[in-house]
Amino acid sequence: MSDKTLQLHPDRLFPTDARVRDIARSLYNEVKDLPIVSPHGHTDPRWFAYDENFGNATELFIRPDHYVFRMLYSQGVPLESLGIGRQDDAPVEQDPLKIWQLFARHYRLFRGTPSRMWLDTVFSEVFGLTQVLDENSAGHYYETITRQLATDAFKPRALMDRFNIELIATTEGALDPLAHHQHISGTPWAKRVITTFRPDDVVDASREDFADNIRALGEMTGEDTQSWQGYLQALRIRREVFRRHGATATDHGHPTAATSDLSQGECESLFARCLSGKANAGEQELFRAQMLTELAGMSLEDGMVMQIHPGAYRNHNPLVFNHFGRDKGADMPSQTEYVQALKPLLDKYGNEAKLNIILFTLDETTYARELAPLAGHYPCLKLGPAWWFHDSPEGMLRFRHQVTETAGFYNTVGFNDDTRAFLSIPARHDVARRIDCRFLAQWIAEHRITEQEGHELAYDLTYRLAKQAYKLGDA
Amino acid sequence: MSDKTLQLHPDRLFPTDARVRDIARSLYNEVKDLPIVSPHGHTDPRWFAYDENFGNATELFIRPDHYVFRMLYSQGVPLESLGIGRQDDAPVEQDPLKIWQLFARHYRLFRGTPSRMWLDTVFSEVFGLTQVLDENSAGHYYETITRQLATDAFKPRALMDRFNIELIATTEGALDPLAHHQHISGTPWAKRVITTFRPDDVVDASREDFADNIRALGEMTGEDTQSWQGYLQALRIRREVFRRHGATATDHGHPTAATSDLSQGECESLFARCLSGKANAGEQELFRAQMLTELAGMSLEDGMVMQIHPGAYRNHNPLVFNHFGRDKGADMPSQTEYVQALKPLLDKYGNEAKLNIILFTLDETTYARELAPLAGHYPCLKLGPAWWFHDSPEGMLRFRHQVTETAGFYNTVGFNDDTRAFLSIPARHDVARRIDCRFLAQWIAEHRITEQEGHELAYDLTYRLAKQAYKLGDA
Amino acid sequence: MSDKTLQLHPDRLFPTDARVRDIARSLYNEVKDLPIVSPHGHTDPRWFAYDENFGNATELFIRPDHYVFRMLYSQGVPLESLGIGRQDDAPVEQDPLKIWQLFARHYRLFRGTPSRMWLDTVFSEVFGLTQVLDENSAGHYYETITRQLATDAFKPRALMDRFNIELIATTEGALDPLAHHQHISGTPWAKRVITTFRPDDVVDASREDFADNIRALGEMTGEDTQSWQGYLQALRIRREVFRRHGATATDHGHPTAATSDLSQGECESLFARCLSGKANAGEQELFRAQMLTELAGMSLEDGMVMQIHPGAYRNHNPLVFNHFGRDKGADMPSQTEYVQALKPLLDKYGNEAKLNIILFTLDETTYARELAPLAGHYPCLKLGPAWWFHDSPEGMLRFRHQVTETAGFYNTVGFNDDTRAFLSIPARHDVARRIDCRFLAQWIAEHRITEQEGHELAYDLTYRLAKQAYKLGDA
């Protein structure tokens, strides 16, 4: 057993000034038990469709969490020793308990990181663990977690209820058959587990499988996707299918925020060139840019909310990519520009108050300089919450401090957990609620908003804005 | 009537820690009643020249304030419904009371913004209003404000006295006849209301009216402005006229901070090309760059302080520009670079201790990285205060936190209100005074400056540095 | 005498909240007396080799400190009046007392800067001065300091002991004969005063003396440095010599972080072109880029830690450079990019857990966006502390706040004083210890780390991580 008690202090993340902390507590008490609305995430719809038990602690907490093995890898822990499967099927550690022990031995590396806070919260609140994870308590942890995971109370749907998750959106590619969502279609769960349309696979011509994907898109939809018009029509058809499975939003993960507004003739020849496999990097970028504008136009037609997530340099480490594949903690943020990049799209659709485009960034320098001024003017733009590396107490505080004075609160859209780590969802929302209450408490204490405004805002930021921005019903 | 009381807490914006707040209060008490020096702004000199009453609440607070309708527009309120005149004379809302009510209905959008703080301060301190503005109190607000505006006590000169404005600088283009300043010339008001020379209209060759403006400049000055030398001479003559109307400073609003130092022959042919209307965007940028260096040279000759305000992407929204014109809240900041951009000018004049160049930015990333190191070395450079989107409590704090350690306090120049909203001037200066005192109090409490130094600095930042930097007399 | 008492408050830089301050004090009390490890700096090895007395106050505090005369120069004080020698031997002020008095008269300019805090700490703690430096106390200061400097207790080695400096690294160019380190070789001081290998002089082909340096390198090593392979071999030989004089690290001060990975044939022809003096700026940049990768490979061979310090625009002011030479306060930070720039090197060596590359930056926007994600993934990367302009209380806080959540604490390497101002070293380390304890105390008070973790981390950040990252023995 560890000699250290695991303590989740009820005032964690609150301001240290006693008077301000009291205000934060009072705001938090009113929102902490509100239902969780999770309009953007990456959980596996299979869980909610078939409601099968999760496996062991290692499978649940380590293998799928690139935050976790990224940090271990940075300190010299080989990914093989964490059981991360190799593309070449070279042997990797198979014993989940050994992997768990290795993780526990390095747990101090996470000090001060959001991963540590999420994990400790899950360990304590979901599994009732009472010691800090370390080498000594590793076995007890592994056994306690794995044993509970086998019970009915830890099945996905039971946890959905226990976690008070009102709605969760998963994310599927344009070609996904949506079989898992199909499985729950017509059941009450269809209202709580919805999909999101993410067409990067049929929009990003730099992918090796692009031409294949376009062909598959044609087969799925019966459209001639070798023609520009047929391709667009096929996208419309897939959007409609996604909407039937609850989707209210689309998602676009592009390297930059570039948009363009080409003539139809230019679009046709650019699309043909991308299909031919002869497009260079600039043409592929232009095609993605054009497609953001096309997809915005479709959103205006069909009412789907458009999420733009630019700025990740994917698979920066070729050795890790070649040995272990995508999403292994080797994606890096890059400088991102919005004011010039979005102009073609905004010139065309920016003044449409019925269009909802939610912008995200990995480049915090754009908060005050570009994103808040854009969202504080264009009717179609709203700002998504602090994202990915910035989904953390400091990151969220920087977001509010840098965005609010120019964009106000009402051009933001509440919190996204953006995670595939299902068990961490309550912990992540709890961090967001604590930090928003902390921020509001500070401004109340500085007499920048009134206490009554603070209470309204706490509710809005926790619950109402997410439902409204993602068109998820009244709040 | 609104059911909520409008409260301006005496400690607003101060630190929440009781001990630090006490220090802030004590600093603030010494500077809060100091005269307002407003060396950079955009009020209408006509007001001070003819001293006529303002119109109604809507005309005063909404129509001219792009901060206000920008936010309303971002949330779907059409500009037509706010009475913003269309270029094509299409009908817009005419009823000022209806516009005011629409504004009041959406007043919650401004929560947490500086606009809200400025407006509440004016409502309370200038008009004696005691409820929060909302749908219910809108009519009472409109009537109370409009009635008072018709009285002698609310004429511009009376407000100048009431607001304790020692000096205010307006801004006029190079071709402005300065008729309103002429009207007060020779009266005691000429010392309190001065002009600023802003030659963008005859320096920015990307404007459609550039060639016309150069011709007009020639007519005004009797110089041959079709020649490079005549053009420069004409600028010198206009500067002299502006100085006779009190101007101590020039102002330059360029898209970037680019400067250049071309040979005379290159200047002549570049100028000719710009005049011919055949210059491309790069040549127009080069001409603006060259002119910053030329104008710095003139400042060295005639002693005028040079203000450089780069980095705004003007009129980003073409629909808004075409329908409603300039300055409608659709200007966006862009990334701005100074270290390379200013080098040609600095190579030529950077070591002139008699030259005063005040740099501003919309790109806060340059505070610690470029602006503070430049101002902390070059004798000619000083840093203007947090500007435009950053003229806010958080923006001002970021400025001081990021600039002070490298540039010190004495390479900064006090506060600019930079506004056309005359009634908000005391509120804006009050925010700056509170935030500076808060910042100083924090550093006193952390024993980074002494209490005595803090008191001297509070005076300097509020009053002395503005007078000194803008050459407005002893302080 | 000055009428103001010089007070170094024991709680300086600590949080103002009493509860948090108590935690900070308790952390600080445990680390304040730990030995100083100074693995990166620019003191003169001659001092420690021959142990001669320093000269007068002016020679010690003003002439070598570009932070000091940079600030004075920015406010119009000519460098000549500060006794800074001119390249053309034009007369400059020679009287050290007059220079000291000029400095004292402008001492208020440093309010709020780290220079002021370092200087006051030295004045008080090293020289026992009790009044603030100003015009009145200048003579007393000069006399008190200069008198003490002549005593045995103020000889360099005595100060090393008094300051409790366990180890100090100096920095020498690749061609440096290391005579001073040679002098102490074999004595106990050889363990406390080590060199660092800084090969910019033989790597940066934009220097006028590059070809000469390469020739000299050949002569020193007996290698044919006109050939690519001979040049590389010569570098290996010099590294070996430096290691014999204690060096555990190399240092690289490049304009950008660019790296490249050319074929051997490309390297040979690029090197030849650089040697010929015909390389253009792009080729010189490419050569520096290639050399970072080559030097990383050598570090992997010989175990030396590699420090990369990119982003300084050196000698920005040509007049100051021509009259006074390098390092006169006219170096400016520039925007720096890492994610793309380092990719060639990382593609080759990024996954080597035995390689230690420590990254620094002058562009704080990269902390959260690029550096923390890179260091939080690549086994070879660690982050150096806040550097140069950012080696300040605010700069250090921004570093910790922006880096920790993604990189953790254990991908950072403790503090570097990076100074040639020997007497300020304890003051600089003391600022770092205070700020780290303040940061940790805040996170303890917010229940983000436990008190026990905070105490371990305070020790790690103060002492252990520096020893470990620079391979300086067990801690």
Automatic annotation (TrEMBL), chains A, B, C:
It is an enzyme of class 5 (isomerase). Pathway: Carbohydrate metabolism; pentose and glucuronate interconversion. It holds the Pfam family UxaC. Transmembrane segments: none annotated. Keywords: Isomerase. It catalyses: aldehydo-D-galacturonate = keto-D-tagaturonate; D-glucuronate = D-fructuronate. The keyword Coiled coil does not apply. It comes from the Bacteria. GO terms for biological process: D-galacturonate catabolic process; D-glucuronate catabolic process. Its EC number is 5.3.1.12. GO terms for molecular function: glucuronate isomerase activity. This is Uronate isomerase. It comes from Lacimicrobium alkaliphilum. The lineage of its organism: Bacteria, Pseudomonadati, Pseudomonadota, Gammaproteobacteria, Alteromonadales. The gene is uxaC.
